[in-house]
Amino acid sequence: DCHIAIHWDGDGLKYDKGCFYMSVPDGIKHIKNVAATWQASERLGDSLIAGLSSKGCKIKGSGSMDMDLTQTSYSTVPSVDIELGNQCSAHDEATLKKLAEGLAAGIDTYFGY
Q1: Can you give the pTM of this predicted structure?
Q2: Phi-psi category of 63—alpha, beta or left, where left has phi over 0 and alpha has psi -120 to 50?
Q3: How far apart (Å, rounded) are the C-alpha atoms in residues 86 and 79?
């Protein structure tokens, strides 16, 4: 029903920049295949960010960054590439549990549970 690619950004920064998802850039939203799903993908991304935020996870800026990724922009189902931080982020069991709970809350919200 949806596609969620989970990542930690390998950006070389020395600080945890927080969670964000890759949103579809305005310049390609009109393309036939992209136009069919980009709004649902952004609703999914926004729901994931809201779920993560509700669990106290750090969010980068507005929670989204425009980037043309084939796996998300041209998907036939709502699709999000989400960064859960970077190499400086905590990766301990408690943090991973909080991230998992945030993602689950976002998925539940998206599907109306």
Answers
A1: 0.93
A2: left
A3: 21
